[in-house]
Amino acid sequence: MMYDLADNHADNHRKPSLFHPNQQTFAFAIDGWVTSGHSAAAKRTLLILDRMNQANLRPNARVLSAAIEAVSRHGQGSNDADVAENLLRQWIELIDQGDRTARPSVQTFTKIINIFARSRDPRKADRAMDLLNYMEKLSTTRGYEKVAPNTIAYNSVVNCIGKSKGEGSARRALELLQKMAKLHESGNTDIKPDSFTYGAVVHALANSGDVDAAAQAELLVSQVEQKYYKDKDESCRPNRIIYNGVLYALAQGSESEPERAHRAMDLLHKMEDAFKNGDKGIEPDLMSYTTVAHALANSQIDGAPEKAEGLLSQCEEAAKIQNRSFPDLPFYSAVIHAYIKSRESGTQQKAEDLLNKMDGISELPGRLNCRPNNRVVNTVLYGWALSDASNKAVKASALLDRLRDMHLAGYKNSRPQLFSHNWVIYAAASSQSSSDEERKAIFDIARDAFQSISEYNLDPNESTYSFYLQACMALLPEGHDRETIISDIFSKCCENGYVTSTVLLQLQKSVPEFLRTLATQLKRDSVQSLLDEIPMEWTRKLAKDTP
């Protein structure tokens, strides 16, 4: 009601109202929206501020304080960070001019830093640091003692830095941790690294991708454990968030350092043992097990797929007996990925068996989060394409059909992509066949996949043409028809600007006369001249993309 009255008063085109709202009226209206829990509270609050300006009523410090609270609690806009920081600057300016209706506290600044953290602003880490420095300046030189940074403020900045994932974010988070420790050691009892600090820094390390991130994260965990178990510092109690961050850091680099998968397994077992001994805060969750499964998949250590599937089975059983969360799509995908990456004989079928199992599980009550998506089906398809299996083209084609069926059934994000078609064509092109009848059937698979690309309004790329020409040369019987088909495909490849040296080398190997004729038509001295300098119009769309 107050908002409507204020709105009417500010509108000069309406009949004058006998009600004349003042600053307190608007403050009450904003308070109402702040405490309402309404999703539009922040938006409505900003509208009220706008109405105040239209009514020539300048918001006082009390009103600006409530507005920041509204944006902090209910903001959903892309410019929430800018709005909140601008309101704060106005607030400080009013106080400097003598307004004493409300003064900011450390909590005010912390709320704005948290708004930075949830934003998509690429500069959010810098802005959080700037605000922290501003707090220190206000509290030490301008008499704003209540905005002196404390542990929570520092933790919010560390968290913001970690979420920014920018270059140098891990280093900056570590530096803040060290600064907090030094400030505490020098006698500042308001600032002290705690479990949240260490967890935020560990996650900053994990997100950084730095070569030594995992080692540094493990070192921090050792420090936390020492502080809690040896020094009896309750504020540094180890928790699942910290350990999961270390697991993620280990998984990130397990491809280049396979032993990290072993370290991830050891840490997971350590968490399990701690939980069994009564430490409820370290109980591994679904994310813990999924991350270790990813570490195993990336490492390709001996028995990695079986170890990953063992974790999956363990979690399935625990969910039935102990009322824990059931494994979901990301967990199953990680195990399937482990089988595909191993490239051992029979692993492709095991991956597909798991995919089929997901189909059945997703039909059970409460297990829809296990339904296969485009990505996991493509992972299995890719595995078959790169395998040595004699039936790999048939298997890959069946998975493409599966994607088509999923798309027709309305499954989200299931539309067959160029990646799917390209690898079906490759599976056919690289198949080994012993009879003309088999080669014809396999070529039909490649041709159908190639023709299906246009049905989904997709554009072929260099891999499409390279794989399909390879299929034509490997599977079609020599003769006029074969050369006609190859000529047509190559013409389309030239027309679309996707000719690569690989394509020309394939032609030179399988249909050398075709390439010699082509070189003559282009008035080149030799085939080698054509290979050395491909016409620019033939290569204009080449990009460093994947099949």
Describe the structure.
The chain is mostly helical and 547 residues long. The protein is 68% helix and 0% strand. It has 26 helices and no strands. It has helices spanning 2-10, 23-36, 41-54, 61-74, 80-96, 106-118, 124-141, 151-164, 169-185, 195-208, 213-230, 240-252, 259-276, 286-299, 304-322, 329-342, 347-362, 374-385, 392-408, 418-429, 436-455, 462-475, 480-496, 501-510, 512-521, 527-532. Helix 18 runs parallel beside helix 20 and helix 22 (462-475) runs antiparallel to helix 23 (480-496). The longest helix is centred in the C-terminal third of the chain and has 20 residues, at 436-455.
Distance between the termini: 60 Å
Report the strand count: 0
N-to-C SSE series?
HHHHHHHHHHHHHHHHHHHHHHHHHH
Helix/strand-derived class? Answer: mainly alpha
Low-confidence region ranges: 1-14
Shape: globular
Helical run tally: 26
Beta content = under 5%
User: Major sheet: size, sense and barrel closure?
Assistant: none
Q: Helix proportion of residues, in percent?
A: 55-70%
Radius of gyration, in Å, reads 32 Å
Mean pLDDT: 90
Explain briefly what this protein structure is.
The chain has 26 helices and no strands. With 547 residues, the chain is mainly alpha-helical.
Outline the fold blueprint.
Elements: H1 2-10, H2 23-36, H3 41-54, H4 61-74, H5 80-96, H6 106-118, H7 124-141, H8 151-164, H9 169-185, H10 195-208, H11 213-230, H12 240-252, H13 259-276, H14 286-299, H15 304-322, H16 329-342, H17 347-362, H18 374-385, H19 392-408, H20 418-429, H21 436-455, H22 462-475, H23 480-496, H24 501-510, H25 512-521, H26 527-532
Helix pairs in contact: 1-3, 2-3, 2-4, 3-4, 4-5, 4-6, 5-6, 6-7, 6-8, 7-8, 8-9, 8-10, 9-10, 10-11, 10-12, 11-12, 12-13, 12-14, 13-14, 14-15, 14-16, 15-16, 16-17, 16-18, 17-18, 18-19, 18-20, 19-20, 19-21, 20-21, 20-22, 21-22, 22-23, 22-24, 24-25
